[in-house]
Design brief:
Elements lengths: L1 H23 L3 E6 L7 E2 L5 E2 L1 H12 L3 E6 L5 H6 L5 E7 L2 H6 L1 E2 L4 E10 L18 E4 L3 H7 L9 E4 L4 H7 L5 E5 H7 L8 E4 L5 E8 L4 H17 L1 H9 L4
Parallel strand pairs: 1-4, 1-5, 8-9, 8-10
Antiparallel strand pairs: 2-3, 5-12, 6-12, 7-10, 7-11, 7-12
Keywords: Signal
Organism: Candidatus Borkfalkia faecigallinarum
Protein name: Transporter substrate-binding domain-containing protein
Length: 252
């Protein structure tokens, strides 16, 4: 009996040790992202890189976690998080009241703004928010900050609004003339408009309010969120965020 009890105790201690080790490191956190240069995007080898990707990998690495980037549909990001498909959202996510109600948000780490992407030849047609009413079709990513802004504009109708699965796809809509305008994050507009296949596109600032980017967690993951807040505060202080911003050409 004593030998049996000793064996049980040994197995229990071993199990506790395994749990403790798993909690200290080695767990792979799944980070929800979209193809959104310069924040998160796959390089030529398929590895996810970018301002957010590198920042997330560094921050979670300090906590002993490996990370796995999972490409998600942005419009269903909250469902993906709550269902356990992913463990956090770190992909240039604008803080909104709706998100605050449904998930836990980190402290803001970057400022963003929505801008218009248009064909260069139409640059003079769209200089204010009122000018959007003349567009037949306005493309945007479903579930994005642009979605929220456009749905609240009284001078627009539902028939003018085209919700798309990916923010990056809105550029092709404008280039081909299928949409007159796209509303996207300024970081993406700077990266894509006027470059390569989209050399004939440009972007204009028509005065949309500035926004804050934050990392999203499940409501119950308060400890992890607090740890990331501490690390982000440190990175702001020691210049890490500023260095990454310069590397990827974004404003923080």
């Amino acid at each position: 009996m004593k030998k049996f009890l000793a064996l049980i105790c040994s197995l229990a201690l071993l199990a506790m040790g395994v749990v403790a080790f798993a909690g200290c490191g080695g767990d792979a956190l799944k980070i929800g992202v979209t193809n959104y240069p310069p924040m998160d995007y796959p390089d030529e080898s398929g590895e996810w890189v970018g301002f957010d990707a590198e920042l997330a990998e560094k921050a979670f690495g300090e906590l002993g976690y490996e990370v796995e980037f999972v490409e998600i549909v942005w419009e269903t990001k909250v469902t993906s998080l709550q269902s356990g498909e992913i463990d956090c959202i770190w992909n240039g996510m604008t803080v909104t009241d709706e998100l605050r109600e449904n998930i836990l948000l980190s402290e803001p780490y970057m400022v963003n703004q929505q801008v218009l992407v248009i064909r260069t030849e139409d640059a003079d047609k769209y200089t204010s928010q009122d000018d959007l009413s003349q567009a037949e079709t306005i493309a945007f990513e479903g579930g994005s900050a642009a979605d929220t802004i456009l749905s609240e504009m009284e001078n627009l109708t539902e028939d003018q609004l085209l919700s798309m699965e990916k923010q990056a796809d809105t550029f092709l809509e404008v280039k081909t003339g299928s949409s007159d305008v796209a509303v996207v994050d300024i970081a993406l507009a700077k990266e894509v408009a006027g470059q390569g296949d989209y050399a004939d596109l440009t972007y204009v600032d028509i005065g949309f309010a500035s926004e804050d980017f934050a990392v999203g967690f499940r409501k119950e993951d308060t400890q992890l969120c607090e740890q990331i807040n501490e690390i982000l505060a440190k990175y702001k202080e020691d210049g890490t965020i500023e260095a990454l911003a310069e590397k990827y050409g974004v404003a923080v």
